[in-house]
Specification:
Blueprint (H helix, E strand, L loop, with lengths): L1 E10 L2 E6 L6 E4 L2 H6 L1 H15 L11 E8 L2 E2 L7 E2 L12 H22 L4 H5 L10 H17 L14 H18 L7 E3 L2 E3 L1 H24 L2
Helix pairs in contact: 3-6, 3-7, 5-6, 5-7
Length: 229
């Protein structure tokens, strides 16, 4: 089975290979070569993950083949050099279909289920315990970032919640933002608008791509941090 992938350096030593044929499927590594090399394994892990939630999903038979169709190198915004411009791929121009959103709704539910399974049993002390070297300070800081980033993605198309309306409780805020996310994706079916902010371009498909990636990426991060103690 053949899949197209697009590659970008999200930030220093963090390359992501996006599977353009499978919503929410990606691989990440310190180099582009490693991210590309892991792309086929990420497909197998992706199907294993979704089949845990939907037993009707068939895991594709090997061999799995991938082809890099686009590479994007990030760069500092001319407007603000501290802002790193991430990828806008040609595929991001493609409007969302109804089927895209149907699948996305399921993936969002499963992703949130995975996150909550990890953090719901943690007490306030553990959530707020400082983590050496963690830029967001603690697991609570990471959760706040997850909700904030997801809401910020939708600000690129003026569809975010106002910050003053966001709930104080972190789990409630995550649910509040997710409700808006799911509602807005239905409204974005067929939308062709492309916006630009700090030299970075955004579209409905790019927001979908980043949203599906971001929570899973940080869920895996939190899981690893808890394993490390």
């Amino acid at each position: 089975m053949y899949f197209q992938i697009a590659v970008e350096d999200m930030e220093p030593d963090h390359w992501v290979a996006w599977n353009l044929d499978l919503l929410g499927c990606y691989s990440a590594a310190r180099t582009s070569t490693e991210a590309i090399a892991q792309a086929t394994r990420s497909i197998s892990r992706y199907f294993a993950w979704i089949s845990e939630h939907d037993h009707s999903i068939m895991i594709p038979e090997e061999p799995l083949e991938t082809e890099v169709v686009e590479t994007f190198l990030s760069f500092p915004s001319q407007r603000d050099p501290s802002y790193i411009v991430n990828a806008f791929f040609e595929d991001d121009r493609r409007p969302l279909t109804c089927w895209d959103v149907v699948i996305t709704q399921k993936l969002l539910d499963w992703s949130r289920e995975s996150l909550l399974k990890i953090v719901q049993g943690l007490d306030e002390q553990r959530l707020n315990q400082p983590i050496p070297g963690e830029v967001r300070g603690s697991i609570a800081g990471i959760l706040e970032h997850v909700a904030g980033a997801e809401n910020w993605y939708f600000s690129q198309l003026s569809l975010c919640l106002e910050r003053t309306t966001l709930l104080e409780n972190l789990l409630a805020r995550l649910a509040q933002v997710r409700t808006n996310t799911k509602e807005q994706f239905w409204k974005l079916i067929g939308e062709r608008q492309i916006t630009e902010n700090y030299d970075e371009r955004w579209s409905a498909r790019k927001i979908l791509r980043r949203t599906l990636w971001h929570e899973r990426d940080h869920t895996q991060q939190i899981e690893q941090l808890l394993k490390e103690g």
